[in-house]
Amino acid sequence: MTEPSGRRERKKAATRQKIADTALRLFLERGYDAVGIRDVAAEADVAVTTLFSHFASKEALVFDQDENFERRLTRAVTDRPPHEPLIPALRREILALLRHCASEAAAPIWRMIDGSPALREYEKSMMTRHAESLAAAIAADLGLPRPTTACRTIARFTVDAYSLAREAADPETALDEIFRMVEAAWEVARPDTASRAFAHHGSGAQDVG
Q1: Any signal peptide, and if so, which residues (predicted)?
Q2: Contact call for residues 163 and 95 (beta carbons, < 8 A)
């Protein structure tokens, strides 16, 4: 008799979480560079191949919420209530992520990341990927076939807002300041605004003619 798919998925998720929790504990206890993949697998009581079936690299063990955060960003666009403006929806999600990751308990993790060139580089590539996914979601929301420069710029600003606010003395005040600038930029650059401005300009030029 085969195991029900729901139970398999729960077991898979539990194993993944166990590996991530074990890795983080070892990294914080011994130092990131002092712990190897085999150390994590042995401590979590899983095979190395099992570990790699859940995490593609050692760096990925630290950012185990990577895919979840990426989904949350895109869903802030796709699942927001009808008629809610884009930028406030993005700000709300970034604020939620910021509160989740800026707690005192998270401080040792960020110190570890900041002290490791490999982790900083991984975080940079991860944030770039998140921005590209967000840009695609914004473009789709506007009915565009592909992300425009405006979509990609606002997506990058949004993702960077998280990092900038996290590093600030007052993260939430910094986030408010950043998103005022993001909203102002979007009002000028968003494709539908640009199209209307172009149409108005073109109409005025025709009238003059």
Answers
A1: none
A2: no
And the tokens for 82?
Answer: 């009808």
> Domain limits at 37?
5-55
Q: Within this chain, do residues 133 and 183 fall inside the same structural domain, yes or no?
A: yes
Q: Are residues 85 and 177 in the same domain?
A: yes
| Alpha carbon distances (Å) from 141 to 96, 169, 180, 200 | 22, 34, 21, 24
pLDDT tens figures, 148-172: 999 999 999 999 999 899 888 899 9
Residues in the chain: 209
pLDDT tens-digit profile of 92-121? 999 998 888 877 788 899 999 999 999 999
Residue 80: strand, helix, or coil: coil
77 and 49 assigned to the same domain: no
Letter for the amino acid at 172? E
pLDDT digits (tens, 9 = 90+) for 45-84: 999 999 999 999 999 999 998 999 999 999 999 999 988 9
State the Cα–Cα distance between residues 131 and 187, nearest whole angstrom: 19
Domain total in the chain? 2
**Closest-CA residue to 32 (of 102, 104, 123, 115):** 115
Dihedral of the alpha carbons of 91, 120, 135, 155, in degrees to the nearest 10: 40
Q: Let me know if 144 is exposed, middle or buried by CB neighbors in 10 A (0-12, 13-18, 19+).
A: middle
Residues 168 and 148 in one domain: yes
Let me know: does 178 contact 165? Beta carbons within 8 Å: yes
